[in-house]
Amino acid sequence: MRAAVLHEIGQDKLDVVDDMEATGFGPGKVKLRVRATGLCHSDLSAMSGVLPQPAPFVPGHEGAGEVVDVGDGVTGLKQGDRVLMCWLPACGACPSCKRGQTQLCLAGFMNAGTPNFRRSGGDVFGFAGTGTFAEEVVVAAGCAVPIPDDVPYEIAALIGCGVTTGLGAAINTAKVEAGSSVAVIGCGGVGISTIQGARVQGAAQIVAVDPVASRREAALRFGATEAVSPDEFTDAKQRITAGEGFDYVFEVVGRSATARTAYENTRRGGTLCVVGAGAMDDFFQVNMFELFFDEKRILPSMYGGGDVLRSYERAIALWRAGRIDLESLITHRVRLAGINEAIDQMRSGEALRTCIEI
């Protein structure tokens, strides 16, 4: 079958091959035919080595498709079911799951260390235990979440990661209050979803911050009340909050420098929500006095900070009601053969989300 593979960490381009085999099918597993997948910035971070991932590997973790086969012991799924892929399935039995923090379950991460593809040269991993830049993939049954018939594959794929992450940061983690002021630093697909989450929550001012003009323009269409470049952020803070700072600032880049900017633009007693996934050697620093004196809440948000199955259902309900716009998040479409074009579009900031049709 066809798949896009990165042979070594640090390579810029993927190699589209036609001799890949999905492996690992058996009890508790399902084989999926991938129909659509989104390109997420986390895929690029894994390719560059910012996020740890063994190589060679097939990137992609934001996918949807249909069930091809079901292993022994799997219930609730059958051949032909339409599903989205959850790259971080909850086991339901660990301490995090029992506390209701299923997004912190580590069971899904264990899948990342087991190869789930093979070709003539040897084993190949799937990013985050999935690997959706392939025609087929074998995953644990908990990774396959049934979707209603009215949800297109490309919409379901976005809900599988970026939309859930962004909406959840505003709704679950930060719990944005109606009438509040919000700033979002980084306005790709996840940042735009964060903006939509803040709008759903009733924020009065939502300032989008991004160096790319096209993304600032898009942010306004999705609910931002103002969009500024990073150089204009301080002025916006002065005008909108009289210099006090925003009630909520979301960092959706994954770098300590932008997290520090976010902290400095959060009001005393306000909330900094860190959504971007960064490198293990990139340290965010605050001094002990400001940490005590300013009483700013620093809240990381992992996969939307809540039960992902409930978050999927909420995203679908909001989309059906017209409260969030998911179709317009997809600014580009390519076939798998054009995957490197999609990567270039994301790196340049041209694309919010590119849908790869498999």
Tell me what you see in this structure.
This protein has 358 residues and is of the alpha/beta class. Helix content is 30%, strand content 26%. Strand 12, helix 6 and strand 13 form a beta-alpha-beta unit. Helix 5 runs parallel beside helix 6 and helix 5 crosses helix 11. The radius of gyration is 20 Å and the shape is globular.
Q: Which word captures the global form?
A: globular
Strand content: 25-35%
Average pLDDT metric:
95
Gyration radius over CA: 20 Å
Biggest sheet character = 7 strands, mixed
Low-confidence stretches: none
Extended strand count: 19
- First-residue to last-residue Cα separation: 11 Å
Find the structural class using helix and strand composition: alpha/beta
Report the helical percentage: 25-40%
Q: Number of helix segments?
A: 12
Question: Which short descriptors sum up this protein?
Answer:
alpha/beta, seven-stranded mixed β-sheet, six-stranded parallel β-sheet, 12 helices, 19 strands, 26% strand
Describe, in short, the structure shown.
The protein is α/β, with parallel strands linked by helices and 358 residues long.
Any chance you could write out the topology, listing elements then pairs?
Layout: E1 3-5, E2 15-17, E3 21-22, E4 29-38, H1 41-48, E5 57-58, E6 62-70, E7 82-85, H2 95-98, H3 107-111, E8 117-119, E9 122-126, E10 136-140, E11 144-146, H4 153-159, H5 162-173, E12 181-185, H6 189-201, E13 205-209, H7 213-221, E14 226-228, H8 233-241, E15 246-251, H9 256-264, E16 266-274, H10 288-294, E17 297-300, H11 308-320, E18 330-335, H12 339-348, E19 353-357
Parallel strand pairs: 5-9, 12-13, 12-15, 13-14, 15-16, 16-17, 18-19
Antiparallel strand pairs: 1-2, 3-8, 4-6, 4-10, 4-19, 6-7, 7-11, 8-9
